[in-house]
Amino acid sequence: MIKSLRIENFALIDSVNIQFDGGFTVITGETGSGKSILLNALNLILGERANFSVIGELKDKSVVEAEIDISGFNMKNFFEANQLDYFDLTIVRREIYKQGRSRAFINDIPVQLNILKELTGGLIHIHSQYNTLELKDKDFQLRLLDVLAGTLKKRTQFQNVFAGYQLKKKELTEKSLLLAESSSKIDYDSFQLTELQALDLDNIDYQAMKQELSKFENADELLASFGALLNLLEMDGGVLQQLGQVNTTLEKNASIDPVLNDLQKRIASVLIELKDISSEAEEQSGSISIDPRQLVELSSKLDSFNKATFKHRVQNQEELLHLMEDLNGSSDDLAQLEGDIARLTYEIQLEEAKLIELGEVLHNARKKSIPEIETRITKSLNELKLVNTILEFRLSKELKLTKFGISNLEIYFSPNVGLPPVPIHHAASGGELSRVMLALQSLMSQKIQLQTILFDEIDTGVSGDVAQKIGQTLKSMGAGMQVIAITHLPQVAAKGEQHLSVSKAIIDGRTQSSVIELDMAARIEETARLMSGDEINEAALANAKALMS
């Protein structure tokens, strides 16, 4: 329930702090006094879109803050899920700025507007004479039936399974689309894999092949180089012959001088190295033979390799090998995808069968309860002076599963004898529908724990005994929940356990609205004013006392 509502710099209100009691509270005031300001302020708390034109002139922002008692409503999971501090007395605040900005807070923690709306929307409900659209809404109609039928648990059980069923269907759709895309891609991947496999990357060293091709392509230059080297070393009078002669001379005299001995050994070592160089040069020279067919084969293989690296935007053979592994794995991924689709299809079939079974149970429970519900509604409508009004719940089975089960509900309405019932969304009388809605809300409040409901002039267009019955109904509802009613009728105002009065006055050259709580004497006077207008006489005061007693 709302414990308090603080409003600052909002339209005609400079600052007000309203303390609310539990039970039934009435709000009265002259037309244009500012009652609608309270509604607009509460709508901000409910997360509705801000109208920045309501910001007053005292500051550059308006503030609306409500202290709400949420103890006993099992809200801790909501607070944990949204990383909010939980308190039984929770404070929600909305700030709107002239610059067009809006901020929302729950227990002083900034939150997105949808989080505020999710919290307060489940705690506070505003209903007006012109707000009967939800009575024509399929979601509301079936929830209404489930509340009155006591089938909310069966409905929740069905919807929990249905939510999992929907997720699996969504996953199946996504995987089926992915399979279709993968299947069209697998042929191309297979073609690319065949191309890469033809390169025999595991067995051919393309870097070595590149060097070999370069060797064949430059054979003449290599032969000339090796030939020049052999000519230098092996020709008559060449380096080897000359060094051999020097080495022989040094050997004869090496024993005479240690230095000469050392030089001889170094010369001998050089001779060995030069002979080895000569031998390798001769061998390499002999291995260079230009085979045109081999040259074409090497060129072709390297050309294919180079095209593959360019095509796949890789730098070397190792990266091509990694690509081959990925392409090999794509067929494995496809097999996994096909397995997932088969599993999901089977699970969906099982859950669909379970949902049909649960839907049948829910549908039958709903159908069984309808006669009793219609009887109770008729009684409530009679008490609100809607005698001969017919409200029928026509339930049929859907051909497909929905989040509501397998039931399709149409509420039919007839306000007068002789008029056949028609779907309620074709009913046009706002006054009649308002009383129907009040009767339904009253019955619902007996079945489930509700929080706070505010009725905005739901009694417009009625008087006399009907007004008396509306007031009594609202008071009865207030026994189990917080009910707030904005009213112009003394019969309704007299039933309130708390009475707030909204008024406006010119203060310091500015029109300002204020809200005060009336004591008993002021309540009698205000109720009398609602009866007789500004000139309150003794008869009106006596009648007001009688109504309140």
Topology:
Blueprint: E1 2-10, E2 13-19, E3 24-29, H1 35-45, E4 61-69, H2 76-81, E5 89-97, E6 102-106, E7 109-111, H3 113-121, E8 124-128, H4 138-149, H5 152-198, H6 206-217, H7 219-234, H8 239-253, H9 258-287, H10 292-311, H11 317-383, E9 390-402, E10 405-414, E11 422-423, H12 430-445, E12 452-456, H13 464-477, E13 482-486, H14 490-493, E14 498-507, E15 510-517, H15 520-532, H16 538-548
Parallel strand pairs: 3-13, 3-14, 8-12, 12-13
Antiparallel strand pairs: 1-2, 1-4, 4-5, 5-6, 6-7, 9-10, 10-11, 14-15
Would you kindly provide a written description of the structure presented here, covering whatever features stand out?
By secondary structure, the chain is of the alpha/beta class. The chain has helices spanning 35-45, 76-81, 113-121, 138-149, 152-198, 206-217, 219-234, 239-253, 258-287, 292-311, 317-383, 430-445, 464-477, 490-493, 520-532, 538-548, and strands at 2-10, 13-19, 24-29, 61-69, 89-97, 102-106, 109-111, 124-128, 390-402, 405-414, 422-423, 452-456, 482-486, 498-507, 510-517. The strands form 3 sheets. The protein has a 6-stranded antiparallel beta sheet with strand order 2-1-4-5-6-7, covered by helices on one side. Strands 8-12-13-3-14-15 form a 6-stranded mixed beta sheet. Strands 9-10-11 form a 3-stranded antiparallel beta sheet. Strand 14 (498-507) and strand 15 (510-517) form a beta hairpin. Helix 7 (219-234) runs antiparallel to helix 9 (258-287) and helix 12 runs parallel beside helix 13. The longest helix is centred in the middle third of the chain and has 67 residues, at 317-383. It is elongated. It starts with a strand and ends with a helix. The mean pLDDT is 85.
